[in-house]
């Protein structure tokens, strides 16, 4: 891979135009309905058009990043590590939850292998960018080197550029990696300046004893590595995951390419949080798909400054919540395009009296 220039990517990220946002809202306010009556659908349309300059989505794509985690050896998940490659095969075969919901949303799914501990043959829909066969166990030292963290970011940025080149107008994030709620909770604790027990939950459905162990494991990882909360790359390298770094890079890249990015749940939001810590304007391009069951999710969303679009008790990942949220953005844009103004419809406007 050629030398990755993170600063050049960050320099391309610009704030979304407040003037454009106001112009679109003014148009929405003239439509034949009470002002503000479509609630957050108005926000979705306003933000999407201000970001892209478009009122219709040509193509939608979800990137599901996959990686294994050395910390899985600590027994923090209800599932064995072999499930990661098995699910990657299921994704590319079109048989997983994300595939079903992406088809519903009319979105393409591309799987990016950043660190699965299995070697894959060339498969349609699989992009091979393996950095290593899983991260190291962060209870014993850093999960990855700083260079590896930057490589993960670079791959995510590359995927955003691919989407832009392919006329994709709405991007979604997804993840796969057994034990990846553990590094995500560690990232949340470090960047939100919270204790692990405030941000750590049951992941794939662990019992009380395993949850207590998981909290101890995260505490140990933070104590051993001392990630610097003022340096997001250090946090990613010390306690993160390759797929989380890929998501962070994708969110950064989308902001640089002026692409709205629908961020899925807990793991995806850990990546988005890293991106937002690297550049404050990144949050303007983030659509938070849903409120995860994971307790740490709300803390990360609060720090990013985004409200979840849905709350459906989801806790799967893969990009499933993102696929559903994409349909809301599309619905909001249809309303913007098709609802007549009071004047066009010949409908009397309400009075302020």
Number of helices: 15
**Kindly state the mean pLDDT as a whole number?**
97
Q: Write out the strand line-up for the largest beta sheet, numbering strands in chain order.
A: 3-2-1-4-5-6
CA radius of gyration is 20 Å
The total strand number stands at: 6
Main beta-sheet strand count, sense and barrel state: 6 strands, parallel
CATH architecture: 3-Layer(aba) Sandwich
Number of domains: 1
Q: Which percent range describes the beta-strand content?
A: 5-15%
Would you give the CATH topology?
Rossmann fold
Topology, please?
Elements: H1 6-11, H2 18-29, H3 40-52, E1 59-67, H4 83-93, H5 97-105, E2 107-115, E3 126-128, H6 146-165, E4 168-176, H7 181-192, H8 196-199, H9 208-225, H10 232-239, H11 242-257, E5 261-263, H12 266-278, E6 286-288, H13 297-304, H14 320-338, H15 342-345
Parallel strand pairs: 1-2, 1-4, 2-3, 4-5, 5-6
Summarize the structure.
With about 350 residues, the protein is of the alpha/beta class.
What does this structure look like?
This protein is α/β, with parallel strands linked by helices and 353 residues long. It contains 15 helices and 6 strands. Strands 3-2-1-4-5-6 form a 6-stranded parallel β-sheet, sandwiched between helices. β5 (261-263), α12 (266-278) and β6 form a beta-alpha-beta unit. The longest helix has 20 residues, at 146-165.
Q: Which short descriptors sum up this protein?
A:
15 helices, 6 strands, alpha/beta, Rossmann fold, 353 residues, 6-stranded parallel beta sheet, single chain
